[in-house]
Amino acid sequence: MALLYSIGIIIASFVIKLIALFNQKLKLGVEGRKETFKTLKKSINPSDKIFWFHCASLGEYEQGLPVFEALKTKYPDYKIVLSFFSPSGYEVRKNAKIADVVVYLPFDTKSNAKRFLNLTNPDYIIFVKYEIWPNFLSEIKKRSLKAILISAVFRENQSFFKWYGGFMTSSLFAFEHIFTQDENSKLLLKRIGYSEASVSGDTRFDRVSNQLNTDNTIDFIEVFKNNKTCVVFG
Prior knowledge:
Layout: H1 2-19, H2 24-33, H3 36-43, E1 50-55, H4 58-74, E2 79-84, H5 87-93, E3 101-104, H6 110-120, E4 124-128, H7 134-142, E5 147-152, H8 166-172, E6 177-180, H9 183-191, E7 197-199, H10 203-211, H11 219-225
Parallel strand pairs: 1-2, 1-4, 2-3, 4-5, 5-6, 6-7
Helix pairs in contact: 4-5, 4-10, 6-7, 7-8
């Protein structure tokens, strides 16, 4: 199964590169991934202490941000590498203040996983919600790197909990701990023998509540309102 998965990833990456010739969003991802290893090599020194945060896209970034900010405050001497899989996340947050380096996650091949981890050598890894990439996680486990998954949600119809999903299921055991959004997700993990899980809730609530402590002033809106009541429909 691992071999079939790796072959599938190679085929998928080739197909994406072809489609990207006609699709601007995919093209951004293809072109951006060409720069990932160059950027990491240029931005990271072997002596650097590294947190690696990975999100699929913008929504997962916003979800993980309260955790990222807390770690950055507590460990200011660590460099932060922030990776995205989707252009929807990278293109919006490529200049995110939370991170020292922002890159696209390379496609999940064994060679990419080894090269990425050789360059970053992270002291701690945090994945958000759904990001389960077997080759990366397999390499993380081989190197005994510390990794956690936050705001995770699992459902019974996912391959992790099917008779044929052993390959994907084993990937979850690369995480030292999994923080789930609900009790049902924790119970599903327990069913496959994963016990290092706890229910922490949905960090989106933390993100929204933190907005109340942030200056959200937008100058042109103040001019537009002109001290009048403004109703927004969305």
